[in-house]
Amino acid sequence: MRRLVSRHKEAQPPSEVPRNLRPWQIRERCFNGRRRGLDPVEIRAFLHRVADELAVAQTALVAVQEENVRIKNALRAWQSTKSASHRPR
Question: Is residue 24 part of a domain?
Answer without folding.
Answer: no
